[in-house]
Amino acid sequence: MKIQISRLLTLILSLTVLLSACGGIEVEADFECPVTERPDPAFIPPEYYEGKEPFEGAFWYGSEGLWTMLLEEAGSELPLSEDGFIQKLFWWADGYVYSEEPMPEFLLLGERLDTNAPVIESTEATNAFSEYGSSILTGVAIPTEGCWQISGRYRGETLSFVVEVVP
């Protein structure tokens, strides 16, 4: 047992030195991720969507121009693929009709807030329809854990929210 612990400590020390020498990721020690919380007062989608309550553990977030449904625990326990932590995101916009714009001109951006990291950018979006009406569907692959701001842009509207991705 002592030999295994010794090897583990040596490995950890070696990785720490290697990352430091390579300019590894430096997360600000006192950084507290400003995770987006349920707004008070709650956002209520436009009249057409009236009575469409988000599912349990979720809330509407945004404005009449662009909104989404966020989970109370957004970012935690996301599935991990070779591309990173993945999630599908649905976005609604007043006046968006899935059958009229099957491939909406939507831009998704992701920016890590707690350290320097490459920006996530995706212009691939598709249409969706459910009990919540017409929506824009995007996928995001967040490359690492950490504090991330996700932003969507559509028809001149921008909506941003913050999630903390944990393994």
Strand content: 35-45%
Overall 3D shape: globular
Tell how many strands the DSSP assignment holds: 10
CATH architecture: Sandwich
Domain count, please report it: 1
> Can you give the mean pLDDT?
81
Measured between the Cα atoms of the first and last residue, the distance is 27 Å
Low-confidence stretches: 1-25
For the record, what CATH class applies? Mainly Beta
Query: Total number of helical segments?
Result: 1
CATH topology: Immunoglobulin-like
Structural class: mainly beta
| Largest beta-sheet characterization | 6 strands, antiparallel
Helix content: 10-25%
Topology as a string of helices (H) and strands (E):
HEEEEEEEEEE
Radius of gyration over C-alpha positions, nearest whole angstrom: 19 Å
Features:
Immunoglobulin-like, 167 residues, mainly beta, four-stranded antiparallel β-sheet, 40% strand
